[in-house]
Specification:
D-Maltodextrin-Binding Protein, domain 2; 13 helices; single chain; 3-stranded antiparallel β-sheet; 50% helix; 19% strand; 6-stranded mixed β-sheet; alpha/beta; 2 domains
Length: 331
């Protein structure tokens, strides 16, 4: 009997040793994270708002993590290709993805291919917010929000607004503007922000909402006139332009503020995700990072993992309602 029990006891002892070794290895790996360079996938082309913000964050993370953070642009399909690349990467903390309002709360509703993506990603932190500004062409003959609203109500269907595509954040902003303010602005979708801006500058369309950094050159040159901002406070560059919040339209204000954060592949060990979250939240507090973000017209925010996940869920639900109201169907 003693001899019969011995192999069983030996097997149990070996299993216990293996489990202890695995636990020790995992803990040690998490404790040493990171011990090599990290790749930060940006799902948009170089030079755009997401890319510029990502490069500022990468430098900040290099300081707080002690390892190089290399930006890898994977543009295509409105951010879908890069986001898929993050979801398909090893869940070891060495591939991080830039997350935006569009990639996390609109694309999964807009593209059937992207419907399952959020479940394959782990939100880590919300780090940057960026205001938007609504601009009109000088030929419209208005110089402020009150003048624009009066003209839009007096001439329903005669003012057109440029957006970078069906179902984009710009589209939802103008659709919500019409619904909230009872206007009838004709929404004209383009294939990207570039063509939309070109027609806005030419006066082919009279209104265009855009993120503040890309809008400022047109405003400074006098080619387009700012009438209202979607921002937590008036941007220093536009001290005379009111926010939707000031005017009493909180929903339009919140909808127009873009944000940027970071995500990991689902299944990344929590200690690694926590280490990355803490380092990212510290990175946006660094004076150099804050100064560079301010120069972009952006602002640092500190949204931890739990609140970031809740924000994504809440805004996805809101955007689904807006897409349904606008009659935009998944494709």
């Amino acid at each position: 009997m003693t001899f019969a029990r011995r192999p069983i006891l030996q097997a149990l002892a070996l299993a216990a040793l293996a489990a202890t070794a695995a636990t020790s290895t995992f803990a040690q790996g998490a404790g040493n994270y990171p011990n090599r360079p990290i790749k930060l996938i940006v799902p948009f082309a170089a030079g755009g708002s997401t890319d510029v913000v990502a490069r500022v964050l990468a430098e900040g993370l290099r300081n707080t993590l002690g390892q190089p953070v290399v930006v890898d642009n994977r543009a295509g399909a409105g951010g879908l290709l890069g986001t898929e690349a993050v979801a398909q990467s090893p869940a070891d903390g060495y591939t991080v993805g830039m997350a935006t309002v569009s990639t996390m709360t609109i694309n999964p509703l807009l593209y059937t291919r992207a419907a399952g993506l959020p479940a394959k990603l782990m939100p880590v932190a919300g780090l940057v917010s960026m205001p938007a500004v609504y601009m009109v062409h000088p030929n419209l003959g208005v110089k402020d929000f009150a003048g624009f609203l009066a003209k839009a109500k007096a001439e329903p269907g005669k003012i057109s607004g440029a957006v970078p595509g069906l179902g984009t954040l710009g589209h939802l902003m103008l659709a919500s503007f019409n619904d909230t303010l009872k206007t009838d602005i004709l929404i004209v979708p383009y294939r990207g922000s570039g063509p939309a801006l070109n027609d806005a500058l030419a006066g082919m369309v009279q209104l265009m909402p855009d993120q503040l950094p890309s809008a400022m050159p047109q405003i400074k040159s006098g080619k387009l006139i700012p009438i209202v901002q979607a921002a937590s406070a008036r941007a220093p560059e536009l001290p005379n332009v009111p926010t939707f919040k000031e005017l009493g339209y909180n929903g339009l204000n919140e909808l127009g503020i873009s944000w940027f954060g970071i995500v990991l592949p689902k299944g990344t060990p929590e200690p690694i995700a926590k280490r990355l979250q803490d380092a990212a939240l510290k990175a946006v507090q660094l004076p150099d990072v804050q100064q560079r973000l301010k120069a972009l017209g952006a602002a640092p925010i500190q949204v931890d993992q739990a609140r970031f996940a809740a924000q994504i869920a809440q805004e996805t639900q809101r955007n689904k309602q807006l897409l349904d109201q606008a009659g935009v169907k998944p494709e």
